[in-house]
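Encode chain A's predicted structure.
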Amino acid sequence: MRFSKLQLIGSLALARWTFAAPHAHASVKREASKLGESYDFIVAGGGTSGLTVADRLTEAFPDKTVLVVEYGDIEYAAGIFDPPTTLWNGSLGLGSTFLFRSLPIPDLNNRSAVTVGGKLVGGSSAVNGMFFDRGSRFDYDAWAQAQAGERDFDESPEKWNWDGLFPFFKKSVTFTEPDADVAAAYGYTWDKSAYGGTTPIYASMPPFEWGDNGVAREAWKEMGVKVLTECAGGDKNGICWAPTSEHPVTARRSHAGIGHYSAVVGSRPNYEMLVKHQVTRVVYPGGDLKSGPPMVEVRAVNGSVLFNLTAKAEVILSAGVFNTPAILQRSGIGHQSIISRLGIPLVLDSPGVGLNLQDHSGPSLSWNYTKPTHFTPSPDDMLNSTFAAAALSAFDATPARGPFTLAMGNSGLFLSLPALSPTANQTTARIAALGITGPAQMYLHNLYMSAPALLTGYRHQLGALAALLSNPAAPSLEAVFATGTSVPLINLHPLSRGVVRVDPADPLGLPIVDYRTASNPLDMEVYLSHFRYLRGMVGTQALARHGAREATPPASGEGKGGEDEALVAWMRGSLTPSYMHACCTAAMLPRRFGGVVGPDLKVFGAAGLRVVDASVFPMLVGAHLSATAYAVAEKAADIIIRKWAE
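Encoded structure for chain A:
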């Protein structure tokens, strides 16, 4: 279905789905001269979180004005596998993106992590893989454990655990049950009580699977893994179906630029958008941090002239995991060492800004089939012109059907460390010991050494992680599969921590990202446990009947020690350093633990300034991040609305 055709569809549901052209709304501004004198709320970043908050504020307060400042523009955001491509997973279908390449990672043979962020209205929800899952309840309860011990958090009415977030998970998305024939064909299961929202952010089960999708699921079942009816309701230790962030009729990508902007802005004269502009920093006149909200300094992306915007109520930073800490650091808010390298005064000592960077990573398991095997349908069929034409016709139908509706897949294995490793207790004991008396500082960036709160907070996180990974119901491993002969082994709860900092040589450019993947050797121990377990797939009847033979790693050494050494060497040269699920660089933790924002998401010590995006996550969750980003933003909007409704 080409975009021009999409605009011709007449039903109300599909009409709401049509995305705005760049000049479709009077709310879209491209020049400073078109702006008002001031706004009640200014949101830096028109992505997943920023647009969610802007939508809710303009709805709740018709008499208050909201301006979103977005670096990118309004664009059509294709799905992860949309026409005209016929090579599944060969064309990502991305819109405009920021490309972040990390510094070389010493523990991965100096390879770099590469990740992207959305550079368009809708942010990363407009360019991601569309796998729309949530973490387990234990992931979010671990947030609360990492935050415990400080009065501001312990006594706050804002609880950032599963019970405190679940209502906002439900509010944030509209789930549509698949048709009965689709559910029967693929064995889809779900529990609608895990959902309940009416917002135009859609989650749907794709009406298509590749012919070999069931091979992995059957293998996992042979290995004794439980099949779960639903994985979005807090329980996630088993084999899951995950919905895709797509419209249930058109199968087009559902993202914040549509659901929280295009679908609502036409009836909101108080909702404005400034595109192709960068928020460079926030400025407190006279340096008085109690006199907030601050001024917002902005420049056109293709210009050099700086100008200030005035917020009367609040400034909300939602520029993303890499760009939000960069705004704070350019504002003189951050780690003293980072700020001094920029040659600017330290306005607020907040050493956690840009630190605590986390992301999913891990090796992959691959195999070959030694018997003649052709699963139908398969991605190879897309190379047949007749099949490809039929796929396009099916995608053009109402409702859409066929291969183009699948995105990157929606089936996965999520399993706890105790369920997959006989040595889990020893591993988690070492994590706990590292947090109490061990040399944790050895594995951290030297910036931690000059800020004791950061090291204290990291040790506190290790305690929470040891408890989480000891839980037989809390997943440590993710393995997703749609088709093919490999699966990723994703470490859901890494111990390693990275750093994001403004580049002194290019302060307004992309920040320097230091991933430091696998810098904590216990992460490698977890990778090994995951790999040893999942290679058992190859020996199951589900794969053996096709003559499956493991293709990775290369020949191992003699004896257990030799085998482990060979596996580690192979992983250092081959594992994926980033699955593009970065978080946690302006963490919602107590200040004495190196936290940047409190439970109300206000920046400690800076009046009128909040952060609302994935940078506030205290720790990485066992899920792809978009659903959690929406839920956190919904809860943040609720907090802000209650504040200003008083």
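The two ends are 48 Å apart (CA to CA).
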